[in-house]
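To the structural biology subgroup,

Please find below the input and predicted structure for UDP-3-O-acylglucosamine N-acyltransferase, which we are adding to the shared reference set this quarter. The sequence is reproduced verbatim from the submission form. If anyone notices a discrepancy with their own records, reply to this email rather than editing the shared folder directly, so we keep one authoritative version.
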Amino acid sequence: MSVAAFFHLSRPYAVAEIAALTGATIRDAAEPAAPPVITGVAPLAAGHHGDLCFFFSARYAEALAACRATACFLRPRHAHLLPGRIIGLLVDDPQFAMTRAASALFPEALRPGSLFRGGGVAPGAHVHPEARLEPGVTVDPGAVIGPGAEIGTGTVIGPQAVIGPDVRIGRNCAIGAQVSVICALIGDRVIIHPGARLGQDGFGYARGEKGWLKTPQLGRVIVQDDVEIGANTTIDRGATRDTIIGEGSKIDNLVQIGHNVVIGRFCAIVAQTGVAGSCEIGDYVALGGQSAIGGHLKIGEGAAIAAKSGVMRDVPPGARLGGAPARPLRRFLRGAALLDRLARRGATDAE
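Predicted structure (tokenized):
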């Protein structure tokens, strides 16, 4: 099974332990040959003895019928679809339960670890004498840590990562391979995936008679606790104020965050989204993939922006927008449906 090739099982879990961990109610299979133990996770179509699966939609009933896993999370209303040979773990949210179980089974998969599988400062790493590393920091070969940088215990710095002068990184963080962090303050339990760039210049210029004059970018990037930043994402430092990423927010791969942007707590920003400078994004906002947020806008708390949307005006709290330019989601969907009907009518008339 592919997951076992790269991530080690923490230990086998009895099905009863999985149920206790996730709050599931057990529906026993018919006369198991041995005490049921979970040693892996798998999709329904590939599940076999020892595996744990989850089922959340009747559209996958055929795959469930053919599954050979030991146990499966599913909702009580779907229990009648479960083959008698599989132990049912009845929960309200199978995907959430599966996430908790998989995290216990394969904790190494939750964050980037040392690619050198070492501890301490590896040979070939370059740590400035004026840097301060707490006990328990791991630094992989090729990493560079500048003067005055401070890194907390339990943090892993991946190979060829660059930590600039005076940067602060908290405890139990994971900084992936070839990440660069300058002009930044990073909280605890932050995950930054390979290739991300934090703290570089924002895109700031003043127009003059002879072209563009570069504006000094004097702010910082502040990343609060429990943030996750995807691979090859870029977050510009502020110009005169700080760029801030709020507690618990999750940013996907290939996202661009401009200078002076303030992102609230527990936001979700999906791949290839661009947020222009000086935007303010409230708590619990969701930005769909390839959405574009114009500069100096405010996105209210709990708002959701559909994929490929272009936001050009402030968004009130709780709004649901879609399209380019973005408008209320229902109106956008009705408009798309109307255009589709007109196109089909035109094609019929042409015939």
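Summary notes: The chain has a mean pLDDT of 94. The CA atoms of residues 3 and 202 lie 39 Å apart.

Regards,
Lab coordination
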